[in-house]
Specification:
By secondary structure, this protein is α/β, with parallel strands linked by helices. It has a domain at 3-93 and 168-249: Rossmann fold (3-Layer(aba) Sandwich). The chain is 35% helix and 30% strand. The protein has eight helices and twelve strands. The protein has helices spanning 47-55, 79-84, 102-114, 120-133, 151-165, 181-196, 234-243, 246-249, and strands spanning 3-14, 20-32, 36-40, 60-69, 72-73, 87-89, 97-101, 144-145, 169-173, 201-206, 219-224, 227-232. Helix 3 (102-114) runs parallel beside helix 5. The longest helix is centred in the last third of the chain and has 16 residues, at 181-196. Bound molecules: adenosine-5'-diphosphate and magnesium ion (MG) (2 copies). It comes from Actinoplanes cyaneus. GO terms for molecular function: ATP binding; ATP hydrolysis activity.
């Protein structure tokens, strides 16, 4: 059982001229393994800033508050250490990795996180199984990471990482954006499979309610103006689908 605790998190973005622009205005959120939390909010409300701050992106400066995973100070860790501590951030490896195949990348990541290389015999099967479940061509494993990946392939690759790396906490930022309906279903099923193990906590960040039809969150947090302004169960997402964010804007 793991707990990610975000307490009064305040974050500014570093502008090119060196100035700090405040974005997160005190975020409080607790996520336990097995729970799925959705953060929903309008464009520009700071949802990605929250994800990037937990990921350790250098563009964002933490000006107050704390983030801990099972009591460990996440904000004091390097990006690599955060991954090894069990945090999975879907935007963490968005770049092309020239000359590194998907298969090698996943094996290296798995080795780094577990502290030992996965057994060759069982690993090949696990990799094949994960790809089959995501309806991916086995040849995909030999392609270079993110090189010429379509939007759908990028997302499938993310979910593959999720299934194979078995993180304690997974943060998925706009995983639904740019997916056609078939890809959305395959990706959602992947998330739900990992969810069923009960060993991973999820933070699903989204602008639209679409993905929440496939992945029913246990908790929904409405995010406006850099903070959470309303919390509820999955019925809150249904309400947003009907009436939008308007009534929450005044609370920011
Ligand atoms: P969301 O993911 O909810 O759409 P973001 O976290 O991407 O919101 O952005 C929140 C706010 O921070 C926006 O007003 C955005 O313009 C601003 N912002 C984010 N990154 C930068 C940046 N590098 N330079 C200037 N403003 C930024
Ligand atoms: Mg945005
Ligand atoms: Mg965003």
């Amino acid at each position: 059982m793991s707990t990610l605790e975000i307490r009064d998190l305040q974050v500014s973005v570093k502008l090119p001229d060196g100035e700090l622009k405040p974005i997160l205005a005190g975020v409080d959120l607790t996520i336990k393994s097995g729970e799925t939390h959705a953060i929903m909010g309008p464009n520009g409300s700071g949802k990605s800033t929250l994800a990037y701050s937990i990921a350790g992106h250098p563009k964002y400066e933490i000006t107050g508050g704390s983030v801990t995973l099972d009591g460990q100070d996440v904000l004091a860790l390097t990006v690599d250490e955060r991954a090894r501590a069990g945090l999975f951030l879907a935007m963490q490896y968005p770049v092309e990795v020239p000359g590194v195949s998907v298969a090698n990348f996943l094996r290296t990541a798995k080795t780094a996180i577990d502290g030992e290389a996965p057994k060759l015999r069982t690993w090949a099967g696990e990799l094949r199984g994960a790809m089959e479940k995501l309806q991916m061509d086995p040849a995909f494993a030999q392609r270079n990471v993110n090189e010429g990946f379509s939007g759908g392939e990028k997302k499938r690759h993310e979910i593959m990482q999720l299934e194979l790396l078995k993180p304690k906490m997974a943060i998925l930022d706009e995983t639904d954006s740019g997916l056609d309906i078939d890809a959305l279903r395959v990706v959602s099923e992947g998330v739900n499979r990992v969810r069923e193990t009960g060993e991973t906590g999820f933070l699903l960040i989204t602008h639209y309610t679409r993905i929440l039809r496939y992945i029913k969150p246990d908790f929904v947090h409405v995010f406006v103006g850099g903070k959470i302004v309303e919390e509820g169960g999955s019925e809150l997402a249904d309400e947003l689908e009907v009436s939008g964010y308007e009534k929450f804007l005044a609370k920011a």
